[in-house]
Structure formats: structure tokens, C-alpha cells
Amino acid sequence: EVQLAESGGGLIQPGGSLSLSCAASGFTFSNYAMSWVRQAPGKGLEWVSTISGSGGTTYYADSVKGRFTISRDNSKNTMYLQMNSLTAVDTAIYYCAKDRNDVGSSSNYWGQGTLVTVSS
Amino acid sequence: DIQMTQSPSSLSASVGDRVTITCRASQGISNYLAWYQQKPGKVPKLLIYAASTLQSGVPSRFSGSGSGTDFALTISSLQPEDVATYYCQNYNSAGFKTFGPGTKVDIK
């Protein structure tokens, strides 16, 4: 059974940094791209970032490019999202998702999400 | 950048009704289109990928169609458990993804 578990969310002041983790199990982690998707309170889904199965290629939404860094450790079956220079607009539930294939596919499994609140 | 729009933004229909949600891309995206269902307070769930391929385990009353710029998600007979917000998503080989704004479906 595929399982994805996010951690690392919390309350952070504007301008601060936070690191999220996504622990995966139930599939061959390195074979699949992984993505982060966020959802601001009461709003729609927003794609944030995707990393290829090998970790060698990364993609970012314009809204986070230069501030967020996606990475993965295939030996630990874990994906990360380092978030810097956070502002209130980054407040959201952050979901990690397993893509159906490597890069260029939809996401067929989702974690429960972790809430990031940026506020003073 | 590719923009995705959906219509309507919300709808209310009776149990058993046929419901269609449309999604339009700002440029041709072939069939790189997925549909997700998000029930209130729940995690998004993949319903359809490649515009018309039903994800395993999804009821057959859901179907997808379209190619290029215009796509549709149809629920052939609306059920109470289908109350949710539905999102289309473009994904592509360049690695980028874009969600539509969502369509909220209620029971009349």
C-alpha cells in the first residue's frame, strides 16, 4: 500500500524558513517523480514543484522559484521542500504527491498534507 | 505559460442527473489533462488521466473527453457521494503542471 506522510509544517514568521519532509513507502521510490502541491485556506490547488525519480531534474512554479528548493533522498525514500523568504501568501496546506510515472504525469497518490502558516 | 479555465465555477444538480464540467487550456495540450476530485476536508483524488483514462477504482459513471484545448468531465448519474470540488490539471513532459480553478458540485 502506497503511503505518503508529510511533516515539518507549523507557524513561521514572515521572512523565515521552513523545511518540509515527505516519507514514502509501498512503492519503488526512485522510479517515480514526486511533487508538492499546496492549497491556501478556502482556495484551489496550486502546483508548487516536481522532482524527477533520480532527483536530477527539478521544476518550480514561478511563484516559488528562487525561494523554494525541492530535493529527495532515494536511500531514505524521502522528499523534501526547503522554503525560504516565506510570506503570508505561502500560508497553505502542503501536500506531497506521487506521480504516475517519471516527469510529465499526473499524481495518483497524495499525502494528508501539512499546514504551513506564515504570520507574525 | 499555459492557463486553465473551468466552467461553471459551481453547479447544483439532482441525484441521477448527468453533469458535465468543462476545462479549457490557453493553448493546445494534446491529451495531457487530468481530473481530480476533492471532497470537503479531504485529500485530492485522481479520477482521470490522459484526458479520458479512468484511474483504477474510480466508478464508471465518471468519464473524460477532449483533446487539444477543450476537455470535459462527465458524471453520468450524480450520486450524493459525488459532492466535491473538481479540478482539471495540465501536466507536460517539460515538468510543469497547472491546475484549473475548480468546479464545486452540490446536490439540489
- Helix/strand/pairing category of chain A: mainly beta
Mean pLDDT over all positions of chain A: 97
Biggest sheet character of chain B: 7 strands, mixed
What is the residue-mean pLDDT of chain B, rounded to a whole number? 97
Per DSSP E runs of 2 or more residues, the count of β-strands of chain A stands at 11
Principal-axis shape of chain A: globular
If helices are DSSP runs of H or I spanning 4 or more residues, what is the number of helices of chain B?
0
Q: What is the SS-derived class of chain B?
A: mainly beta
- Helix-strand string of chain B: EEEEEEEEEEE
What oligomeric state best describes the polypeptide chains here? heterodimer
Number of DSSP helical runs of chain A: 0
Query: Could you tell me which chain pair has the largest interface and how many residues each side has?
Result: A-B, 24 and 26 residues
The poorly predicted ranges of chain B are none
Please summarize what this structure is.
Chain A is mainly beta. Chain A has no helices and 11 strands.
Give a description of the structure.
- The complex is a heterodimer of chains A (120) and B (108).
- The mean pLDDT of chain A is 97.
- In chain A, the strands form two sheets. In chain A, strands 2, 4, 5, 6, 9, 10 and 11 form a seven-stranded mixed β-sheet that branches. In chain A, strands 1-3-8-7 form a four-stranded antiparallel β-sheet, with no helix packed on it.
- Helices cover 0% and strands 51% of the residues of chain A.
- Chain A is mostly beta strands and 120 residues long.
- Chain A is built from no helices and eleven strands.
- With 108 residues, chain B is mainly beta.
- In chain B, strands 2, 4, 5, 6, 9, 10 and 11 form a seven-stranded mixed β-sheet that branches. A four-stranded antiparallel β-sheet of chain B has the order 1-3-8-7, with no helix packed on it.
- Helix content of chain B is 0%, strand content 52%.
- Chain B has no helices and eleven strands.
- The interface between A and B is medium-sized, with 24 and 26 residues.
